[in-house]
Amino acid sequence: xxxxxxxxxxxxxxxxxxxxxxxxxxxxxxxxxxxxxxxxxxxxxxxxxxxxxxxxxxxxxxxxxxxxxxxxxxxxxxxxxxxxxxxxxxxxxxxxxxxxxxxxxxxxxxxxxxxxxxxxxxxxxxxxxxxxxxxxxxxxxxxxxxxxxxxxxxxxxxxxxxxxxxxxxxxxxxxxxxxxxxxxxxxxxxxxxxxxxxxxxxxxxxxxxxxxxxxxxxxxxxxxxxxxxxxxxxxxxxxxxxxxxxxxxxxxxxxxxxxxxxxxxxxxxxxxxxxxxxxxxxxxxxxxxxxxxxxxxxxxxxxxxxxxxxxxxxxxxxxxxxxxxxxxxxxxxxxxxxxxxxxxxxxxxxxxxxxxxxxxxxxxxxxxxxxxx
Length: 373
Ligand code: GMT
Prior knowledge:
Layout: E1 2-6, H1 13-27, E2 31-36, E3 50-54, H2 68-83, E4 87-91, H3 93-109, E5 116-120, H4 123-126, H5 135-144, E6 147-150, H6 153-162, E7 169-171, H7 178-181, H8 187-193, E8 199-204, H9 213-224, E9 229-234, H10 240-246, E10 256-260, H11 265-270, E11 274-277, H12 286-293, E12 298-301, H13 306-309, E13 316-319, H14 324-335, H15 338-353, H16 357-372
Parallel strand pairs: 1-2, 1-4, 2-3, 4-5, 5-6, 6-7, 8-9, 8-11, 9-10, 11-12, 12-13
The structure holds ligand GMT.
Ligand GMT is lined by residues 12-15, 17, 92, 121-123, 151, 174, 206, 208, 210, 281-286.
């Protein structure tokens, strides 16, 4: 099959998932055409049957805001026409679903029928999409997609709650390649970070307000009172400068390292003992799933789709948003001795296996076959 995938090329979960899906489909012999404004960060090296089409938005003095959506729709038309594309799979509704609708109409005028699959990822529904500036267009383009999928049961419910649409929404969970993330830790690397055998805690996100990254730091400080540990903060975003400034004047804060954006998450996770995700909302929490696949138990909030991924008392623990005392208490109960940590690590891996790439990618292929036939 020749499949065009439209996504954000950045470190955000929707872009990561779309890129990993494209790579997995190409391994199965499909030709994948990524359409976006930059090479997707998780794409890595050369793949014989993966192609990248850059959306260029020419500037013009009249434009205060360059019309990306128009350029994207035109690029979709061009790629479909020149690469015999069978379907368009767009990730994150804004503005990809409405651009796909436009492309589909243009192609219909040329007697070409191109099915559109839209995968909803989270903030396109729960935050940005429901804003009345966007919601009429998001509602319309969801209705007009041939197939609509959501990455968790919770996101499906949120979509029906926030938009008046009748369309069925199929839940296809996000996935992880367990064989890639379940790596043996490199002792020398672990020693470099934690020379005295301290526990290594990790947080990874785009440091937006919704992630409540200051709660990560607060939780770490409480854990540190009971268990020697280090904290690795991975990623970058608007809240990072404020958080870094919070870590300037407390002594345990010397144990906090900001690593910025990293594309070898599997190496960093391989030396981690605990993953902390304090978000106000997560439709799924792909970063937590990747941690579990690397045998890292998860301390998270209990919101959105997280209870569908993190099993309380098994793969980690969940607490109410902002309850850093509870998060720290739970973390200490996992980290306090090697035996308990070993059990949680094993459980985290077992839970992650339910979302292994081999279980989920065939579900997308089945949808593609259905929509094409
Ligand atoms: O978390 C973000 O801010 C990025 C966002 C995105 O669209 O890239 O992530 C959303 O999609 C991910 C992949 O499906 C999910 O794992 C995240 O939970 C979801 N984020 C939120 O719902 C806040």
